[in-house]
């Protein structure tokens, strides 16, 4: 939880459940642990917190689909995951690479996995307005909620089209499950293709997202069938690795990131229960504390245009080279992901006023949440920090041979510039009516979250690889942002 005056409640912790009484003991011991932790250096605190969360000791944690706060499942209790090519909870990774060999095409199962007889598979045509609306309805009522069932993700239909139709998208990876008798859409899972670098290996992978089972059909083991089906369909395309994120602990995270939140509309955040007025704090002071300038300050900042794509692609891939888990963007990916789309994503570049070169860029996307059972507000408008790159003094950095020293020097060299850019991102987010700006502590986000009054939330996001064994990655070396 935040040590600031406003304790922010995370609203996007994929897979969390409501706390139960038995959690409270866990929460108490976690609270004592937190007190002890407060004396440790900041980086040690962060690592221990992540570890604590992985061990499901942290207050309100729900680990690996066991209910909130219960002891994490042993490998043997993961009836499904123990059969899959993933790193085991207690495994020490020494060699990097595939866990299972690629399967020859003629040995891949040719027919879909059977579903219980009441259900049938149904590919969703995301380009069809009626079908994308059905998907929107399923997700808006059944997708990820916070622990206390106060907020639920409300991805817009336009957002879903953006997220599911990137370059190379495949309809066979937009997999729905319908009730056979009335054709109602009751479950979904999706994949999109992406080149991913993990440490030094580059692989074409599938990014799995939007796994959702209707609330009334939970705990019937539908999810494992859906995961097996998307795996089969991925194998058929010649891809054997996947990346995915979840709030729940499964075998086994290769990185864990924490959510940070920056209030933009503190009054609404308090009214919705997202934040709380701290002791001795007044609403007027809170509003003053989070007030931003009305205009941006970086000279040459403007909306990204199609003509900027080649330069942004170079900037993006150069910046990403400092990360240990990163997407590799071709120009067509940059065009798709980073140019503004109304109500979905905002992309900006900095054009040097003299040389007209693009020196930096940043982006954020809109992911509102439904505010459940609140008489004042029905939607929380959240912006999420997406990709960015900031200019670095390359010549100076090249002179430093020690990797650790170089990394430190790089961070110090970009801190001020990044803070200024992100302050502008916050101002643009206010201009676009967002209530809060969220960021994980991945990329170089820790360089600006503290300076720009972000508070740590209680949500963590775990990163997983399917059929790829690798060393763990620190949160500030995660360069992949999943929607
Ligand atoms: S993360 C977002 C997930 N969605 C939500 O949280 C929305 C709300 N919740 C639901 O809709 C349901 O609770 C879901 C589970 C659908 C999550 N990832 O059917 P069940 C395991 C992976 O009885 P249900 C996202 O979209 C659980 O440990 N596994 O459970 C990324 C247990 O297995 P085991 C999960 O609650 C998804 C089994 O499912 C998750 O009715 C990445 C229970 O099944 C989870 N988030 O449904 C998917 N939650 O017994 C993996 C629970 O072993 C992709 N479980 O513990 C892998 C790569 C595939 C491609 C490979 C290609 C090469």
From TrEMBL:
UniProt GO molecular function: glycylpeptide N-tetradecanoyltransferase activity
Catalytic activity: N-terminal glycyl-[protein] + tetradecanoyl-CoA = N-tetradecanoylglycyl-[protein] + CoA + H(+)
Domain of life: Eukaryota
EC number(s) reported in the record: 2.3.1.97
Keywords (A to Z) from UniProt: Acyltransferase, Transferase
Domain Glycylpeptide N-tetradecanoyltransferase C-terminal: residue ranges: 271-475
Segments for region (Disordered): 1-27
Record field: compositional bias (Low complexity): 1-14
Xref: Gene3D superfamilies: 3.40.630.170
Protein's UniProt keywords contain Isomerase: no
GO CC annotation: cytoplasm
Name of the top EC class for this enzyme: transferase
InterPro entries from the UniProt entry: Acyl_CoA_acyltransferase, NMT, NMT_C, NMT_CS, NMT_N
Residue ranges annotated for the Glycylpeptide N-tetradecanoyltransferase N-terminal domain, each copy included: 99-257
UniProt function note: Adds a myristoyl group to the N-terminal glycine residue of certain cellular proteins.
Family named by the database record: Belongs to the NMT family.
Entry protein name: Glycylpeptide N-tetradecanoyltransferase
Origin organism lineage: Eukaryota, Fungi, Fungi incertae sedis, Mucoromycota, Mortierellomycotina
